[in-house]
Specification:
Length: about 1000
C-alpha cells in the first residue's frame, strides 16, 4: 500500500464530522480547557497560507489537551458584519447577507465569481473545531444578544464608590432622595448639580436627558473620524496614513451626534487587570499606553479677551497637567483646533488664519497627528488667558499637536520643561503672541534644550514654590490652586469613550426608537430587531445613513413591532435608529456565546458560564492590541458587574502568531519625464503619451545597481532604451536627448512566472486581465532572451499577487504536510517567509514515517520486543514534544519527529510497542495519517482522545559509556564500559586489554588518569 494523503484525509474528515469527534460537553466530569482563535472576517478572497498559522497552532494544542484527558472547547465562527461586504454591495448591488453566506459556505456569487468558501477550506486542513457551536455575528439569533447587551449598558451607570456598574434604577433612587451632589459616578463633566426636590420637579424628558449623562452607553455630540468616500465614521485603527484603510479615502474630523460607550469608566480596572493575565509584555504595554494613566492636576485659566462682563458667563480654559510644579513657567497656552472655545475667543484680526488652520487640521486623523513629532504648526488666536497666581496675560494659540479627545483638549505650555512646547515656542519666536520662554529651574541651562527631568529639579522664579523639589512643589501648587478654586489634584486617562455608531447598513441594528428626540429601548422580549431590506446601500439624498432608505423601519409601540416608515406619527409609532453598531460589537463577547451557542433565551446559561468561565488560551494577531482586545475586556468586566460573567478577564493566556510573508515578484517599468521646461507643456505631455511602455529585466538593472526593491528609481537613458523609443515613435534626437527615464516596480501575478527560474512568461503577462494596459509593451530582456523578475519578501496579500492558497498545497501534498510545514517554518510568534520549496521535504518525511508501518504489500508492524535504542528514540520524542507543545515551540517538535523517524528507520524498528505511541505523539500535528496508522494497527475509534504516552526517564538513562582511551593525550582506541564501575575497576579492565598491552610495549605508565563517564588517559 502507498501513502495517499487525499484519500486518507477525506476519509477521516468524514469520520470526525459523522461522529462529532470534537464536540465539547458542557457538563463533563473531565477538567475543562477552552482554546480560542480570533475568528475571521469571511472575505471573498478566502484563505491564503498565512491565515491558518494560528489555527494550526491552536489545533495542535487542543488535540494535545484532549490526549491529556481534558474536555476541550475549540470552536470556530465568523465575524461576518463589516465594511468590505457593504462596499461590495454598493459596487455590485448584491445583498451583503448573500455574499457573506457564499464567502462562508462556498459557491458562485451573482458576478460569476467562484468562491471556495471558508468552511470548506478550514475543513480541508483538518481542524478539530466543534462546529456544532459555530456562530456568525450577522445572524439575527446571534445579534439579538448583542442588542440585549447594548440595552444592559444603556440601563447601567458606573458607581465609583462600589467600583462597578449598577442598574440605572439605583441612581434614580439616589436622585429622588438626595439629588446628585453626593453621587460619585462616572459621568459627563458638564453635568450640573441639583437637589432631590429639583429632580422630582423635573419633567420626565428633562430627567431622561440628565440620565444620558450617566448611562454607560449614551448619545452625545462627539469629534469623530468622518470618511465622506465611505459615508461613515471610522475607528482610529481603520485609518492608515490619514486615509481609510479600505479604499484609501480622505478622512476628516467632524462633530456628530453619536452613540458612545463609557469605556473610560473601566480605565483603572483595565489597567490593573493586565497584572493578572498571561499575555506578552509588548501587548500589555500597548494597552497601558493606550489607557495612558497620568497623575497630576486640573487647572482653570480665566479667559481675558471676551465680550461678556457678567461673572457667571466668565469663560475658562481647563487643562490637565502632570507637572503643576511648573505653573509659573507657563509661557503660552495651546488649544486643540477643534476645541469649542476656539471660535468664541478668537479675535476678528485672527479669525481668517484660525479658520484656515482648523479646516486644514480636520483632514488629519488623530493617529497621524500623534505620530507626527517633526512638523510644527499653529496659529495665534489673538486671545489671552490670566495666570491664576501672577494674573499676567498668557497668549492662547491653537496647534494640531493638541488633541480634543485627550485630556481637556488644551495644554499649559511650559517650554523650559517640555520638548514639544520648547520647539513650538522657538519656531514662532518673535511673532506677536509668542512670549519669551520663562525658566523656572534653578541652575539649569535651557538655552539649547528643554529640561524634562523631575527627579533632581529645584524650582526657581516661582514665588511661593522657590527652592522646592518636584514633589514638594506639586503638593504646594495643588493646595494653592484649590484655595483659589482654580484647580485640584486629579488622575487622568488617555483612554476616551468609544464611539459606537456607524453610518452603515451591514451592522447590528440598534434596539432603539426615538420619542421627542430621546432614545427609548425596545424591550428584550421583542428582540431581535432584524436588519431591514433596502433598495440601495448608500446614504440617502439628504445625508441620512443607508437605513434611511428602508421602507419598513419604524416602531409601533402598541403592537411592539417594526412597521412602515410612512406610519410614523410620533404618538404611538416612532422612528427607529438609523445608525448601526460598529464591527467590534459582535466580537466583544463572542467567546461567551460559544459556551452555549444554541440557547434561545440567554446569551449563555449560568451553568455554561460557570463551567467554562473564560478562555484558557487565545491565539490571534497583535494588530488587535488596542481595539478588539481592549473592548472585549471592557464588555467582560461589565458583564461580570451585572452578574453574568464569572471572571474579570476574558482571556487567561494570549499568544500572538507571527505573519507568514509572501515572496512578491516585480516587473520593472520604464517611464519618462521631459527634462526641459517648455511653454507648450500640453504638447510635451501628448508626445510623452506616444512613448510605449518599456519593461526592463531585473538582471539588466541589477548590473547597473538600479533596482531598489520595487521602489521608484531614476536610470540612465542607454542606447537600448533609445532604440526602442525611436522604433516606435520616430521622435527627434533633440527630444530624445532631454528625456529623463525612471523605473517603478509593478507587482506581477505569480501565475505568469516560473517559480524556479524567476522567468516571466511575457505572452501570458500581456494577455493577463490585470495587465491589459501593457499588451503592447516592449520588454528589454537578457542576452538569452529571457525576462527575469525581481523578488521581495512582503506581507502576503491578494493585492500584491503573492498569495499561496492552502487548497493547492492540500491537493498536491495533503493537509498533514501543510500543518507540519507551517509549524516547521519557525517560532510561532515570529514573522517568517513562505517558501514552497520546503514542502516536498516534509512530504518526504511523512512517506518515510509510513514506511515504518507498512510497505507495498501491507502492514509490517510486529510484536517484537523493542530494543533499548528503540525505547530511547521514542521517549526522547515523547519528552521533547510534550515540552515543546507546552511552551508553544512547535517548530522544534517537527525537527524531533524527523530525528526520531530517521533513528527508528536506521534501527529497522517495526515494533508495535514503539509505533503505536509514536502515532499518538505525532497526531496533534498530523492527525489524518495518525488516525490511519492507529486504525491499521487494529484499534477502533479515534486516536484523538487516547491518552498521551507517559515519558519514562529510565529509558534515557545511559548504562554504558564509550570511553576514548588515550596515551599521552592521543586517543588510540575506544571501549564501551558500564557507567557504574569504579576507577579501580576501569583501570583493571583497561590494563588487561590487548590493545593497551600493545600500546605500552611492556612499559608501565607513570600515571593512569581516569574520570568516570568521561576520559581514560595513560601517561608516560
Amino acid at each position: 500500500m502507498k501513502y495517499n494523503p487525499n484519500e486518507i484525509e477525506a476519509k477521516w474528515q468524514k469520520y470526525w464530522l459523522e461522529n462529532q469527534t470534537f464536540k465539547a460537553e458542557n457538563n463533563a466530569t473531565k477538567p475543562k480547557y477552552y482554546v480560542l482563535d480570533m475568528f475571521p472576517y469571511p472575505s471573498g478572497a478566502g484563505l491564503h497560507v498565512g491565515h491558518p498559522l494560528g489555527y494550526i497552532a491552536s489545533d495542535v494544542y487542543s488535540r494535545y489537551k484532549r490526549h491529556q484527558g481534558f474536555n476541550v472547547l475549540h470552536p470556530m465562527g465568523y465575524d461576518s458584519f463589516g465594511l468590505p461586504a457593504e462596499q461590495y454591495a454598493i459596487q455590485t448591488g448584491q445583498r451583503p447577507e448573500d455574499t457573506t453566506s457564499v464567502n462562508i459556505d462556498g459557491g458562485t456569487d451573482k458576478e460569476g465569481n467562484k468562491i471556495a468558501g471558508y468552511r470548506k477550506q478550514l475543513d480541508k486542513i483538518g481542524f478539530s473545531f466543534d462546529w456544532s457551536r459555530e456562530v456568525r455575528t450577522s445572524n439575527s439569533d446571534y445579534y439579538k444578544h448583542t442588542q440585549w447587551i447594548f440595552i444592559q449598558l444603556f440601563n447601567s451607570w458606573y458607581n465609583k464608590n462600589s467600583d462597578k456598574a449598577e442598574d440605572i434604577s439605583t441612581l434614580v433612587s439616589i436622585f429622588e432622595k438626595e439629588g446628585n451632589v453626593n453621587v460619585n459616578a462616572v459621568c459627563d463633566e458638564n453635568s450640573e448639580a441639583f437637589s432631590a426636590n429639583e429632580w422630582n420637579a423635573f419633567a420626565k424628558e428633562q430627567q431622561e436627558r440628565i440620565l444620558l449623562q450617566y448611562r454607560l452607553t449614551y448619545l452625545a455630540e462627539t469629534e469623530v473620524n468622518w470618511c465622506p468616500g465611505l459615508g461613515t465614521v471610522l475607528a482610529n485603527d481603520e485609518i492608515v496614513n490619514g486615509v481609510s484603510e479600505r479604499g484609501g479615502f480622505t478622512v476628516v474630523r467632524k462633530k456628530m451626534t453619536q452613540w458612545s460607550m463609557r469605556i473610560s469608566a473601566y480605565a483603572e480596572r483595565l489597567l490593573q487587570g493586565l497584572n493578572d493575565i498571561d499575555w506578552n509584555e509588548s501587548i500589555k504595554e500597548s494597552q497601558r499606553n493606550w489607557i495612558g494613566k497620568s497623575v497630576g492636576a486640573t487647572v482653570s485659566f480665566k479667559v481675558e479677551s471676551q465680550n461678556s462682563t457678567v461673572e457667571s458667563e466668565q469663560q475658562y480654559i481647563d487643562v490637565f497637567t502632570t507637572r503643576p510644579d511648573t505653573i509659573f513657567g507657563v509661557t503660552f497656552m495651546t488649544l486643540a483646533p477643534e476645541h469649542e472655545l476656539v471660535s468664541q475667543i478668537t479675535t476678528p484680526e485672527q479669525k481668517a488664519a484660525v479658520k484656515a488652520y482648523v479646516e486644514k487640521t480636520s483632514k488629519r486623523s488623530e493617529r497621524e497627528r500623534m505620530a507626527d513629532v517633526k512638523t510644527i504648526s499653529g496659529v495665534f488666536t489673538g486671545a489671552y488667558a490670566e495666570h491664576p497666581f501672577t494674573k499676567e496675560p498668557i497668549p492662547v494659540w491653537i496647534g494640531d499637536y493638541v488633541l480634543a479627545g485627550y485630556g481637556t483638549g488644551a495644554v499649559m505650555a511650559v517650554p523650559c520643561g517640555d520638548e514639544r512646547d520648547y520647539a513650538f515656542a522657538n519656531f514662532f519666536k518673535g511673532q506677536n503672541g509668542m512670549e519669551e520662554i520663562i525658566n523656572i529651574f534653578a541652575n539649569v541651562d535651557i538655552s539649547e534644550v528643554a529640561y524634562g527631568s523631575k527627579d533632581t529639579v529645584i524650582i526657581a522664579n516661582s514665588d511661593f514654590l522657590n527652592g522646592l523639589t518636584y514633589k514638594e512643589a506639586t503638593k504646594k501648587a495643588i493646595e494653592e490652586l484649590e484655595k483659589l478654586n482654580q484647580g485640584k489634584g486629579k488622575i487622568n486617562y488617555r483612554l476616551r469613550d468609544a464611539v459606537f455608531s456607524r453610518q452603515r447598513y451591514w451592522g447590528e441594528p440598534f434596539p432603539v426608537y426615538y420619542v421627542n428626540g430621546l432614545p427609548q429601548m425596545i424591550a428584550a422580549k421583542h428582540l431581535p430587531i432584524i436588519l431591514p431590506e433596502v433598495e440601495k446601500y448608500l446614504p440617502t439624498e439628504d445625508g441620512q445613513p443607508p437605513l434611511g432608505n428602508a421602507l419598513v423601519w419604524a416602531w409601533d409601540s402598541i403592537q411592539c413591532s417594526v412597521v412602515s416608515t410612512q406610519l410614523v406619527d410620533n404618538v404611538t409609532i416612532f422612528p427607529l435608529e438609523l445608525n448601526t453598531m460598529p464591527g467590534w460589537a459582535g466580537s466583544s463577547w463572542y467567546w461567551m456565546r460559544y459556551m452555549d451557542a444554541h440557547n434561545e433565551n440567554e446569551f449563555a446559561s449560568k451553568d455554561a458560564l460557570a463551567y467554562w468561565e473564560n478562555v484558557d488560551l487565545y491565539i490571534g494577531g497583535s494588530e488587535h492590541a488596542t481595539g478588539h482586545l481592549l473592548y472585549s475586556r471592557f464588555w467582560n468586566k461589565f458583564l461580570k458587574d451585572k452578574g453574568f460573567a464569572l471572571t474579570e478577564e476574558p482571556f487567561k493566556k494570549l499568544i500572538n502568531q507571527g505573519m507568514i510573508l509572501g515572496m512578491s515578484a516585480f516587473v520593472y517599468r520604464i517611464s519618462f519625464t521631459y527634462g526641459i521646461a517648455s511653454k507648450d507643456n500640453n504638447e510635451i505631455i501628448e508626445t510623452l503619451k506616444k512613448i510605449p511602455t518599456v519593461f526592463i529585466s531585473y538582471d539588466k538593472l541589477k548590473k547597473n545597481d538600479q533596482v531598489l526593491n520595487g521602489l521608484l528609481s531614476t536610470i540612465k537613458l542607454n542606447d537600448e532604451v533609445i532604440n526602442i523609443v525611436k522604433k516606435r515613435t520616430q521622435l527627434s534626437d533633440e527630444f530624445l536627448k532631454n528625456l529623463v527615464p525612471f523605473i517603478s516596480g509593478i507587482h506581477a501575478d505569480l501565475a505568469v512566472i516560473n517559480d524556479g527560474t524567476n522567468e516571466l512568461d511575457i505572452e501570458a503577462f500581456k494577455s493577463h486581465s490585470l495587465y491589459a494596459d501593457y499588451k503592447d509593451a516592449e520588454f528589454i530582456c537578457e542576452e538569452n532572451g529571457k525576462y527575469i523578475v525581481g523578488r521581495e519578501i512582503e506581507k502576503m496579500s491578494k493585492s500584491k499577487y503573492n498569495v499561496v492558497t492552502p487548497d493547492d498545497i492540500c491537493n498536491e501534498y495533503g493537509a498533514d504536510t501543510l500543518r507540519l510545514y507551517e509549524m516547521f517554518l519557525g517560532p510561532l510568534e515570529q514573522a517568517k517567509p513562505w517558501n514552497t520549496a520546503g514542502i516536498s521535504g516534509v512530504f518526504g518525511f511523512l512517506k518515510k514515517l509510513c514506511r515504518l508501518y507498512f510497505d507495498d504489500n501491507g502492514l509490517i508492524v510486529t510484536n517484537d520486543k523493542p530494543t533499548k535504542d528503540n525505547l530511547k528514540s521514542l521517549h526522547k520524542t515523547i519528552k521533547k514534544v510534550a515540552e515543546d507543545i507546552e511552551s508553544f515551540s512547535f517548530n522544534t517538535s517537527v525537527s524531533q519527529f524527523m530525528i526520531c523517524v530517521n533513528e527508528l528507520s536506521t534501527q529497522n524498528c517495526h515494533s508495535r510497542a514503539i509505533l503505536e505511541p509514536l502515532a499518538i505523539v505525532i497526531s496533534p500535528y498530523a492527525p489524518h495519517i495518525a488516525e490511519e496508522l492507529w486504525s491499521l494497527l487494529g484499534n477502533t475509534g479515534s486516536i484523538a482522545t487516547v491518552d498521551f504516552p507517559v515519558f519514562e526517564a529510565k529509558y534515557l538513562v545511559e548504562s554504558e559509556k564509550e570511553y576514548p582511551v588515550s596515551f599521552n593525550g592521543k586517543m588510540r582506541f575506544t571501549m564501551v564500559l558500564p557507567l557504574d564501575l569504579t576507577k579501580e575497576q576501569i583501570e583493571e579492565i583497561v590494563m588487561k586489554d590487548e590493545r593497551t598491552i600493545k600500546q605500552l610495549e611492556g612499559k608501565t605508565p607513570n600515571k593512569v588518569i581516569i574520570v568516570p563517564g568521561k576520559i581514560i588517559n595513560l601517561v608516560g
